[in-house]
Amino acid sequence: MDKTIMVVDGNHGIRSMISHMLLLEHYGVVSAGSAVEALEMIEAGMRPDLIIAEFDMERGLDGAEFARRIRSNPATFDMPFIIMASEYRLNREQEWKNAGATGCIVKPFTVNELLDSVRRATI
């Protein structure tokens, strides 16, 4: 377990599924139910090697604003950041790119698609 990944999604089931897949691949995992919660964890000193966050979070900040805040913090500006987006949100690709996201994974995704994205982002 040499890399820690933060999973941020308002849906507990999705967070649990992704966390389980990553744990099976021997990643360390921390999770947050909102971008606000994740930012609090980061401000308290949590330094994941990668963040995977939902684009359309229901409470508080959306994924693009969350990515912008990560990029604006000198302690986290270079942290890899993957946005999870529903297929209908791909037309907003420029928005998450402008926010500084490293990449995007489209829901629904397979285990292999998730792991490939994680490996590309954490090399």
What does this structure look like?
The protein is globular. Strands 2-1-3-4-5 form a 5-stranded parallel beta sheet, sandwiched between helices. It has 123 residues and is α/β, with parallel strands linked by helices. The protein has helices at residues 12-24, 35-43, 63-72, 93-98, 111-122; strands at 4-8, 28-32, 50-54, 81-86, 103-107. β1, α1 (12-24) and β2 form a beta-alpha-beta unit. The protein has a single domain, classed as 3-Layer(aba) Sandwich (Rossmann fold).
Structure described in brief:
This protein has 123 residues and is an alpha/beta fold.
What is the topology?
Layout: E1 4-8, H1 12-24, E2 28-32, H2 35-43, E3 50-54, H3 63-72, E4 81-86, H4 93-98, E5 103-107, H5 111-122
Parallel strand pairs: 1-2, 1-3, 3-4, 4-5
Helix- and strand-based class? alpha/beta
Radius of gyration: 13 Å
Q: What share of residues are in beta strands?
A: 15-25%
Number of strands: 5
Instruction: Please tell me the overall pLDDT.
Output: 87
List the secondary-structure elements in sequence, H or E: EHEHEHEHEH
Straight-line distance between termini: 15 Å
CATH topology: Rossmann fold
Number of helices: 5
- CATH architecture type: 3-Layer(aba) Sandwich
Q: How many structural domains?
A: 1
User: Which quaternary structure do these chains form?
Assistant: single chain
**Low-confidence runs (pLDDT<50, min 5 residues)?**
none
Shape: globular
How would you write the strand order of the largest sheet?
Answer: 2-1-3-4-5
